[in-house]
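[stage:ingest] chain + small molecule (adenosine-5'-diphosphate)
[stage:ingest] validated
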Amino acid sequence: MARVLLLIPSRTYRTHDFMAAASRLGIEVVVGSEHRPALAGLMEGRHLRLDFHDIERSTGRIVDFSKAKPLAAVVAVDDAGTLLAASAAAALGIAHNPLDAVEAARDKARMRERFLAAGLPTPRFTVMSIDADPAPVAPTLRYPSVVKPLDLSGSQGVIRADSATVFPSVFRRVAAIIAGCSPNGGRRSLLVEDFIDGEEVAIEALLRRGELEVLAIFDKPDPLNGPFFEETIYVTPSRLPDATQTLVAQTTARATRALGLTDGPIHAELRLNSDGPWVLEVAARSIGGLCSRTLRFGSGISLEELILRHAAGLPVPEHDRERRAAGVMMLPIPQAGVLREVAGQTEARRVFRIDGLVITIPPGEPLIPLPEGDRYLGFMFARGPSPASVEKALRQAHAQLRVLTDA
Ligand code: ADP
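[stage:predict] done
[stage:export] tokens:
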């Protein structure tokens, strides 16, 4: 039986789907987490407490652990564990992304430098300390521009600035979000770059020894023009012409090579305009939230199963994506407040072609909209004969929901 160490950050949506995949595959899971799990007593020998930021020390602990219980793979279920997974895999001699490539993928400024050096279309960008005075920089920028943190995700802290007049206040808002996310130090810089016009797609792919296999291209039918960039609907297969999809796949492959990534899941975001595809970012992990539930491959294999099979060196069966179209809506947080109830869930579930709705914030918890917020209200899923039918179902079902809050 293969034994795999799953690195599970304290805040992730991905635990259940990875554990379920491991159990289907008969893989023994060792959970690596930053906190002691409630049932740690029952997990003797199957739990490792690790600091995901102290890469050296945690790598040492993983290597020690594997002497008694050899590990076939170390898999980060989310962004937070990708550096440690690469470092530990290298120490254990397991094929994995080079640490330096993962570091570049975790830092939007280094990513831009690598893309530029590789000749990929890259917006003009500059890195600034969050303690800098934005006023003198404001007249030197091109507008609209986008101000964003280097290493957050889910569009948290990403804001468009339309003019030199508003730039300083946008800068300060992003700086405050970054400072709030890293009270104990951490990166105190942000990225300012030109706004790239155009429609956006997301790519889910798997790298195997440097070869990129695209698993799905998602269209994002709601325009993302800012000033905040709340993701909503993802639908696959893409409705883009085949030639454009090929270009998107090729550009994603170039971007992964530019970063030096070689193995494991890839989630990329690209924008398309008259200059062709622009890579917004490439992350060395799979799609976030519960969105992977839209994907089924071959005879019903999940994305997590594919990732674990690849990582543990198990045979990877036929895995074309299912024929039907599928989509997810990341449910937006409409207003700040304390969540009382999401009403209309029964009605939403009854909408034809809706095949799942999960509210991920419990009643009584605060709702914080973007750009400060870092959580989704929930996820809604649909399947149908065509991308248009899936998009329509998601919109109809969303119209049934009412988010009730207390001040
Ligand atoms: P995150 O890792 O938080 O998702 P991204 O850099 O991917 O951060 O930005 C989030 C979203 O913001 C993107 O999906 C895109 O819609 C928008 N965005 C970011 N940078 C730009 C840009 N330079 N031009 C246009 N839109 C952008």
